[in-house]
Specification:
about 300 residues, four-stranded antiparallel sheet, 4 strands
Amino acid sequence: MEKTEQDTVMIEQQGQVQAVTTNATDAPKPARVMVSRAALTAHMPRPNWNQDGLSDPAAGRVPPLPSQMKMGAKMELHSHLAINLFRGRRGDPDAKRRPIYGLARFARQIAMVWSAAEKDDPYADQCILDVEAKYHEAVSIFTEREKNLSDIIEGLDGLDIDIQTSVKPAGIDLQFFCPWAYKATVLLLQFDRMVRLGLTARHLGLMGDQDWDAVISDSARVLRNIFALPSRWISTGVTRDDCRKKTKVAKRALGMYAERKEGRLVLLDKVLSGEVRAKISPVSKELEKYLAQAAN
């Protein structure tokens, strides 16, 4: 289950550092996942020659191993629309207002799905596969739309135009656990560029309201749909072995997914068997072991 304490993402905007704080119970939450060093390095190759008696004598005394590796990234957004899609929006049941999942919530949830897929949860694998499919669709849509907007602006002979740019864009420090969070970040950055191009085209009188809705508003919808995909996954603790043996855990998981009225995750047989997985997915030792035994 998700933790209820608050997390904070630092946003540098207009020369100041602001704290964006949300509550995990009802609002999109920044993706800051605590993962142990052992979990991060569980599937990394472990060289064993860096010890006495095994290293090349030319190396002399065995040097110490480097400490753990870290990676960070910083994203700059220029438009309010893109910032909104990072933050998301909390829901309000009393006002019958649904939450809007942003990149921050997506990153947090896809990290949990990734961890479950490592433990051979077939529903988690299905969720990642769905994200991968929608991601590739979005890349195709965004690339075509960005090119069309650029061509419209650059097609003005004799007029050299600089597209709309924030004087002080919002800088957001990122530290995600799952690769799909970074891939989604690239999509959000591409959307931000489309917004800037669209604003420029509107200012020049080259884009009307209907065009804006068809390109920019629809692109925002595409992103929101991707960001909402991990919410279809349910933490049940089920594994493929449970499904094969039809244990109580498997039956309970099946019942929980069947109760979903909207956004139900549909588990394909090829995913359940382990035959099909996303190209970018975690190593599952249990699945590899089972497939190796089944091949013999």
